Every structure is written in structure tokens, then in C-alpha cells.
Amino acid sequence: MAGQIPFHKPSITQAEIDAVEAVLRSGWLTSGPKARELEAAVTKYVGSSDSASPSSAPGTELHGVALSSCTAALHLALIAAGVGQGDEVITSPYTFVSTGETILYLGAKPVFVDVEPSTKNLDPSKLDSALTKKTKAIVMVSIAGHPCRTQEVAKMTRGRNIHIIEDAAHSLTARLGETPVGTQADITCFSFYATKGVTAGEGGMAVMGREDWADRIRRLCLHGLSDAAWSRYGSGGWWDYDVTELGYKYNLTDIQAALALAQMARAEEMRKRRESIARRYTEALRGVPGIKTPSVAPGVRHAWHLYQIAVARAAPVQTVGNKASQEEGRGTGRDALSLALRADGIGTSVHFKPLHLFRWYQERLGFSTGQFPVAERCFEETLSLPIYPDLSDSDVDRVADRIRAHMGASK
Ligand SMILES: Cc1ncc(COP(=O)(O)O)c(C=O)c1O
């Protein structure tokens, strides 16, 4: 059998290793100068000059707060937006658990709106019926790296005192037209998790136009202390601090920040490689029966965090005479294809099982299967293929060839 093709492999060069080593030798490991540098690098990357944050005037400077995860960023963003007990927060069920759980941490109620089949992002045409007097915020999720229609939703809710938060865990390098992700919502939350386009191993960032919110998130991520260690122990610092509100331990270490900074310097190059892999898959899988390749809306620059195909639930049975595929054709559909790829040493994954299908959400919150049919159908069909900068063209071809064979496509 040919070598393994893992679902993901991080792209780590000597630059990342040197950057982390320098921090280890520096005498300062926790949040400090590197975390601040990362905040500057990310806000510069997403662009402050054409900021279109609905809560701030165009051209407003962006503020970034480096955090331990995107989950932490979502939690603190919701607090900054004033979400609390009894409020309603609209989001899509087609997301990772972080989006839902952070709403629940605050005693607020997640209200789901079904997704668009083409992008799996919240469908703005279905938003109206979910809006109530209790709606305090909307969390838009950009799945796979395809930006969501955040600005459209912001326009629809203008004047209603509803804050828009974007869960952009997948889409740091994405743009919608000329507008970078990170400038469309009141607060945008990014992830530097191990598999993300820019990684710190674990990490995240909240980016926003409002300085008062950024200051509050900065305090909340360090126990609500009035002064962080870096300023207390730096030259001219003083030991004393106050606690101004109940906080959390959500800061990002300088070790992680240094790794993410080295990745930021390669963000564009890595995004381009992902884009070229996506193009190669799409070309190779064109016309394969039972397979739909991802669609990209006009004017979108996709981050390609994930390359998700849709596998028809009742895919055509293998063609007569194609012996190899008859032997391997153990049923059809997404899971059969995933198993066939696994047997050939190719890792795949599924993103995501919609939140309302989880037992906890059904038993504790009363959601039920069938409530969000588009999300459910997308989930049943979706399969994420390997996509990362170090994946070679021949690896891509091998994955595509195996899919073609399994689905009974002609050579
Ligand atoms: C859509 C989405 N939101 C939030 C998160 C949480 O990110 P983190 O692991 O940095 O907390 C993830 C993680 O993969 C995600 O996929």
C-alpha cells in the first residue's frame, strides 16, 4: 500500500522553530511582547483602513486581543456585546460545539437558523422569523473558510441594538469582495488551533473596532485584573493590581504567539497553496457520479481551511465490469467512501454534526431531529478531504483517483 495521507499535518518550518526557541531563551514565556506583536500582525493583515465594522465608523482602527482559543474569544465577545441570562443569541446549528456552548455559558438561549446549502453558512433569508425582542446578538459562522453574509445580516438588524459576532475560526485569510473577514462584524473571533490556516497549536483572537470592548476583553482574559503581569513586571512596573470584575484565564502565551507570528508571515503563501489544492481536487472530481465539489460565491476569496465534498446518500452502485470497485463497494454514501479511503491510508473527517442533533441539546434544550433540514442534509453528505500546505499534488491525485474508483467513475 502507498504511504499514509493523514487528514491534517501542520506546516512547520525552521522559522517557526527558531521563533519558539527565541521565546524559550528570552526569559518571558507567558503573555507579553509576542502576544502584543501577534495582535498587531493580525489586525494589520485583516486591514484597518477599510474597516466596515457595523458598530464603528468606516476607517476605525481595529483592536485585537490574543486569547487561548477561539472558544475563549467567542465567550468574551458575547460578554462584551452585553449577552446575559435570558437573552437570545441567533446562530446556525451547522457549527462546532464552541459556538453553542459559549452562548449557554452565559445563561442565554441559542436560537438556530438553518443554513444555505451552497456554503453551509447561516441563511439570511430565514433570519426574520428568529428575531425577537430578546435577540441580543447574532453569531455568524463562516464554514470551511467561505465568508458568511455578515454585512447583509448587519443591515437587516440595523437600529435594533443587536450585535453581530463572527465565528471566523476557519476564515482568517478569507475576503468577501474587497472586505476582509475581521472587518465585517462588531467582533470577529479567530482560531489558531492545530489544524487551522495559521496555528499556535492552540490559540485564538478577538478583533473589533471598539477600543472599550478590547480593553474589557483584555481584562476579562486575565481574571479581571486591572494590570497584566507584563506591565506589572516590566521595567517601571509595580506589583499592585485590583480585580474590577469576575474574569477568566484565557490569555495566550508568548510561546504560542511566537509560533503564530511565524505562521502569519507565511499566511498568504499557505493560503495560496490551499487554494491550488482545492482547484486540483475540483478539477479531478469533476463529473464523478454522486460527488459534488464545493461552490464558491462570486467575489469570494476562500480560506480553504476545509475542502468539503458532498457525497450523495444513494450514490450510484459500482459499474458492472469494474472489478476493483465492485469488491470495495461496501455500500454507498459518505461513510462508505470515508471507510474506503481509510482502507487506502487516506484520512478524512466530517465537519460538522449540527448542534441540534446532539443528545444534550435535545434532552436539555428541546431541539429535535428534522428541525433544520438543510443543515441535516449537508451533514449527512459532507466529507472533508485532506488539505494543507505540505500535501503534494501527487497526494491530491491519489485521493481523487481513489474517490473516482470508489464512486465508479470512468477513468
Ligand atoms: C466553527 C468553529 N468555531 C469555533 C471553534 C473553536 O476554536 P478553538 O479550538 O480555537 O477554540 C472551532 C474549532 O475548530 C470551529 O470549527
Automatic annotation (TrEMBL):
InterPro entries listed in its UniProt record: DegT/StrS_aminotransferase, PyrdxlP-dep_Trfase, PyrdxlP-dep_Trfase_major, PyrdxlP-dep_Trfase_small
Chain positions with N6-(pyridoxal phosphate)lysine modification: K196
Highest taxon above the source species: Bacteria
One Gene Ontology molecular-function label: transaminase activity
An individual GO BP term: polysaccharide biosynthetic process
Catalytic residues in the record: K196 (proton acceptor)
Keyword Transferase tagged: yes
Keyword terms of this UniProt record: Aminotransferase, Pyridoxal phosphate, Transferase
Family, similarity comment: Belongs to the DegT/DnrJ/EryC1 family.
Alphabetized PANTHER family for the sequence: DTDP-4-AMINO-4,6-DIDEOXYGALACTOSE TRANSAMINASE, TRANSAMINASE
UniProt-recorded name of the protein: DegT/DnrJ/EryC1/StrS aminotransferase family protein
